[in-house]
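user:
I keep going back and forth on a fold encoding question. Separate attempts, laid side by side, tell us more than any discussion would. Would you put together a sequence-and-structure record for a protein of your own picking? Write it directly below this note and I will take it from there.

assistant:
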Amino acid sequence: MANKNIDLSVVLHDDSDYKDWLVELKERFYSHRLKASCATNGYLLDFYWKLGRDIEAKQYTNTYGSGFYKNLSLDLKNEMPGVKGFSPTNLKYMSYFYKLYAPLVANRPQAADDFIEDTYNTDIQHITSHDQNRPQLADDFKMLFLIPWDHQRRIIDKCKSDINKALFFVRKTWENNWGRDALLNWLDTDLYERDGKAITNFQSTLPAVQSDLAQQITKDPYQLDFLNLSEKYDERDIEDELVNNVTRFLLELGKGFSYMGRQFRLEVGQQEFFPDLLFYNAHLHAYVVIELKAQSFHPSFLGQLSFYVSAINHQFKTDIDNPTIGLLICKDKDSVVAKYALDSYKEPMGISEYQLSKLFPKDFKSSMPTIEELEKGLKDNVEHEKDKTKS
């Protein structure tokens, strides 16, 4: 750690390696900025990545202490007056950015060099050639440079050193085109912990590629905190609220879902049946039937859902559609019982729980004044004030 009595700026400016590095950074920045004027955010992040890499490689913080960032900030601003983005805090984030994602290019010191130069091809090919069993690695590395820097900083703040969690939010941001507010909203939830966590039989009932994708569209539990339910609610109440808030529910379900209908009428033989909710997922190219239960999971629930899945397959699925999926969302479940129960079904189905943040007393709505009552009260007050004025 640096001695507090030493003028760090003088010491650093006597360091020939540091002075050469400053000149290199200036040339590198202006080169990137020129390209960025006709390209994308990726050039800026490429510059930040390499600057973070240099800071880590040169170990100046170990030599000169935490004051190094302040001095580097001042020197960069002097070398490039008017250029923003070189505050001590932002420089630290560049270092965090590199350290967090460095495992993606571990043992490949040149893997990120010239990343943007060849539209990602050089480095992606280089990485993929060494990671035939990890095709996601190349896509993850490429995607890092497609996310705005402010988004990256927010992800770093929330995910700290958890690279898997950070990459999860990078992918979700890119796939869903999240703005900053949307990203912050999801970062403040436990989306990473819930995503793809439903208990399912997809692996045994669907082809490998589709089963993986189907698993990814599930959550456990589903957060239904936007619903206004009384303490004595039932399935129909949940259904009513979900339909009233279908846009919010679609956001919770995730990307690719389209709402097809509620109590969707099925004619089978001489009888009618009404699944709670029907959706179509454009990424799965499959119908998704959702049954709601305001009680703990029981194996008998799957029989009903299995029947609905089969009926949709027979009556609505076309040759271009993949097999229909059933999703049972219950108040809670015993995971062991749920797994055993799914084993005996050939239809692809999943079981999740839901969570509510608040419940109102049963007579809450009846105790609230109606619009007519509020208007009458307002009118009476106005008349009362007029009478007082006259008197």
